[in-house]
Amino acid sequence: MAKGSRPANRRATKRGATPAQDTRWADVVELRFEGERFQDHALDFDVLPELIQFKRIIVETAKALWKRANPGKKKLPAGFDERIRLRFVRLKEGSAVVPVQAPARDAGNAELFGEGTTGEEAINLAWEVLAANEKDEALPTRLPKEVVPEFAKWGETLREDESIGIQPRGSAVATARGEAVRPPRRAAAKVTLATRARLATYRETPHEGTIEVQGAVLEADVRQRRFQVWRADGASVRVTFDEGQEEQVTTALKEHRSRAVRVVGRGERAPDGTPLSIHQIDALEFVSPEGPKYDDTVPPIEEVIAAIWADVTPEEWARIPTDLSENLDKHIHVTRKPGHGRGENGDYSGPS
User: Fold this and answer.
1) What is the pTM of this model?
2) What is the CATH topology of the domain spanning 207-287?
């Protein structure tokens, strides 16, 4: 091999990235499909959307948990969604059991999967939600309610006699606060047509969760300790504040034309996810008012005009009256009468 050459089967990677062949995968959860269709230890193509929806549940739950744990952060870490990588490479017996894997050692996934991480907590929380719903008990209080609609979508392809069970691989269901819920070793929390119907009821009533809102303070009641944030879309969110935040609120009200606020806290959302109110402020800060956003994909007006001009033929240019700029009204308001047609320059000749 010539000096400085690269083996044909070796792929280049970005600095700091882990080559794909060095990634070690580990089972993190098992999905158990039960019912007559799955007796051959195989999955119909019709139920493959359930695997995609399961990943969406984990991704959206992980994002909501991360935001709750980091109320002062405005954005998720770069590439958060892409770093939650899940796959399966085989099926196990027991109707059809899908061992779901995640990278066990990967630079991009180190903080998302593993003991006590956001990814693991999302999987464990998913088990708790289904286990509680299966028993017709209240859902976990730490569940971000904005992800309930994603849970309600899971199981759409199931038939009357079928279910999907979920069993985390960890020996204990651990939370970020150090709490532990130990499910029976081989038990699986299940979703069925009946449990899906119960989950759907949570979508029909307002629910609590972490809310972030930005806008102008146009109303404030110091005695009731409430103010309203008016967003750029014209909707308002009612916010309750405490004595220590009164000065910021009144300042925001007085300077609402030049200053906006960003509020993050616990509050209530409508069934469709629209923020309604915030009753506990975790972060309150001044920001620049939202204005029209510049779209750098739109070409400058001079380029638009130049493109229009480029489509006009010389013959069309020649038909423009030579005195158009001096006699604009004459050429715009000219009345065409019988016997009057276009003149030599292409303009309509007016009455004599």
Assistant:
1) 0.52
2) OB fold (Dihydrolipoamide Acetyltransferase, E2P) (2.40.50)
